[in-house]
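Moderator note: this is an archived Q&A kept for reference. The question asked for a predicted structure of one protein chain; the sequence and the answer are reproduced below.
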Amino acid sequence: MKYQELVDVYSSLEATTKRLEKTDIISNYLKTLDSDTIEKVGLLILGTVFPAWSSEEIGIGGKLVERAVAEAVGTTPAAVEDAIRDEGDIGLACIKLYAKKSQMTFFSQPLTIDFVFNSLRKLSQISGSRSTNRKIAVLLELLSQASATEAKYLTRTITEELRIGVGDGIVRDAIAQAFDIDKAVVERAQMLTNDFSVVARTAKDEGKEGLKKLNLTPGTPVKPMLAQLAPPLDEIIPEMGNALCDTKYDGIRLQVHRNGDEINIFRIPPP
């Protein structure tokens, strides 16, 4: 499926601040996707290519993205930097710069969601000798074939600033709406897997019963419950009946996962 179709969804989402409209836009789009694509879109719609539990990241700095954009449009990194300063955002800067693009890409084909997703994941695996040049090559392969709007959201995804106003709650509600599943079932599945790619594909392929089968997996960390402010003790304890209290210490959260003899310790959130 063409990446431009996802970009059109991004544009529609960015154009509204209404939660229900965003939910409808994503829900209608999810209904059109095959199983492999919906798995990728479950992450890309949140501006990432890795599930929330993963410590992996694309790992590309802003300067490297500016250099790649400059090469793709045939200008200088300084000009890209000026455009970002003027527009306040690398995505909007791409719209401006691509309008004046001087480079021609021969035999280019439309970007696909699959190609974009796999290329962005590939970036996280590049290290060692000449890694900068190899990363630039991957970025150029994407940006040279991209339209202005595709470049806008590609660069935002790479820099982890998608700016379309979509969070976990909206994606959860959109999956529930798209496949006529109770929100609580989708929320439970997301809590246990911490992975919208798994939740989206399971909802499409197996529906409510498939989501109910999802469970904790040793080695896959889950989000911890967050403490919430409560009224004074003399108000909250009568309401709760009984309460256990513990001292809160500063520090880091760790999850210990044991699977047979294998033990993994995860820092939550990942460093």
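Archived answer notes: The beta strands are 253-259, 262-268.
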